[in-house]
Amino acid sequence: MVQKVPAFVSAAYDPSGAWDAQSPPPSGSSLGMYSKNPPNPEPIDVASGQTAKVSITFDDSVKVP
After folding, report:
1. How far apart are the C-alpha atoms of 39 and 58, rounded to whole Å?
2. What phi and psi values does residue 18 have, to the nearest 5 degrees?
3. What are the residues facing 32 on neighbouring strands?
4. Which of 6, 10, 56, 60 would be a feasible disulfide site paired with 33, CB 3.0-4.6 Å?
5. Long-range contact pairs involving 21-28 (C-beta distance under 8 Å, separation at least 24)
6. Quick check: helix, strand or coil at residue 38?
7. In Å, what is the CA distance from 21 to each residue of 6, 13, 48, 65?
8. CA 7 to mean position of chain CA atoms
9. CA-CA distance, 38 to 30, in Å (whole number)?
């Protein structure tokens, strides 16, 4: 549940499967964010009690250093 709007959404993928998501993603992990104009993040405004559906796509073009 989102507590404040707007929300910004990002994602990371660790191909080793070892990342526990309780720490920063390991070096080499792919990164992505919700954006209509990359690399600028796009805010997601959701009215109280409503839901929003967005898609995040990412590839290996942006990685954790």
Report:
1. 11
2. -90, -15
3. 11
4. 10
5. 24/64, 25/64, 26/64, 27/63, 27/64, 27/65, 28/63, 28/64
6. coil
7. 23, 10, 28, 17
8. 11
9. 15
Q: Do residues 64 and 28 touch, judged by C-beta distance below 8 A?
A: yes
Q: Tell me: the pLDDT tens digits for 11-53?
A: 999 988 999 989 999 999 999 999 888 888 999 998 888 888 9
Half-sphere exposure (Cβ direction) of 36: Cα atoms closer than 13 Å: 4
pLDDT reported for residue 14: 92
The whole-model pTM stands at 0.71
CB 5 within 8 A of CB 44: yes
Query: What does the alpha-carbon distance between residue 8 and residue 30 come to, in Å, rounded to a whole number?
Result: 17
Contact between residue 32 and residue 10 where contact means Cβ atoms under 8 Å apart: yes
| Cβ atoms of residues 65 and 28 within 8 Å | no
